[in-house]
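Lab notebook page, bench 4
Experiment: in silico fold of construct C2
Operator: M.H.
Input chain length: 382 residues
Purpose: comparison with the prior construct
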Amino acid sequence: MKIALENATLVLQNQKLEKQFVLVENKKISKISSDRIEAETKIDLNGNFLLAGFIDIHNHGAIGIDVNQADTQGLYEISKFLISKGVTAWLPTLVPDEDEVYHRLVQAIDELTEFEPKEPIAKVLGIHYEGIFANRQMCGALRPEFFKTFTGKELESLPTPRKGAKMMTMAPEIEGGLELIEKLKQSGWIVSIGHTKANKETLDEALKRGAKHLTHFFNAMSGIHHREIGVAGWGLISPTITFDIIADKIHVHPEILKLACEIKTPDKVLLISDSIAPTGLGDGIFELWGEKIQVLKGKTKNARGNIAGSVITLIDAFKNMVSLGFSIEEVAKMASTNAAKLLNLQNQMGSIEIGKTANLVAIDENLKLTFAIVGDKFCFFR
């Protein structure tokens, strides 16, 4: 089936093009033109912005479903919710837990990956293990009783999906941490530094061994002091390092959020939700990860007084970044392009280019979602 997306304002890497036509054929973008394209199905986007679909590499769940507890149907329901928020692809993100939880989730991911949905849903791209190998002093909302050290064998017993990306957030200063980075890289993992208070020397060595990204920048890492660079300072001054950040204006003060992203530049920043199960359910008290989590006015807090993830989605983060003065083209990079690069999927998704999968979303001038397509499945939002 050929699908023509008509009268779109394309948001490309460094520009916007008005009155464009995009042909989707065999689930891929096959033609981009300023001239009308013939197709069996024509969709008029009425001049709305057409962007690469958002990619969320750090998501613990939504609508009452926790990734750690999710079965195949649960992952499907989260994926269905995410597409309604402009997310066309995501990494289910595990917090430290019993080993059997990891095996159950990987099985669910494998089952969903093989399933061909009849409606558009956000595609599961693999798995993200957050904090199994973390610094106990920087645990945040994670449960340190499930933390591990690396002695050389632990990775072999950690299950991974048959297909897709494998991402690990870890602290390089833990016992065996630097050796773990080498092992992860040799096994095809994307290594991200997080839940850490490593010193500059350890961070420099971690970078040499292949850890080139930082998880939820500023949060669960040592900050900047005028006599101590901290993990955050190191991330800002290291030219090859990228970072992801929770742009809910709660985890990071809006002015600091803006400053950090300007310093690092939009080419090296990824937006994440760090969404937890209560996302989409409003304020209340919820049971999560063995304790009660309070959500009040969009802010989460556990019994220890720590922020416990967020209740935003990437469309919220997108709007917040635009409100801070970043252009739609810049925020599109942070919401999609840069995540595709981190996951080594830039040849398949993350930008509007011929040959890439048609994972696309449309927003109007008020940044309200109006349309989404994943391959050849599409939906409208009112």
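Observations: The longest strand covers residues 2-11. The chain is about 25% helix and 30% strand.
Next step: discuss at group meeting.
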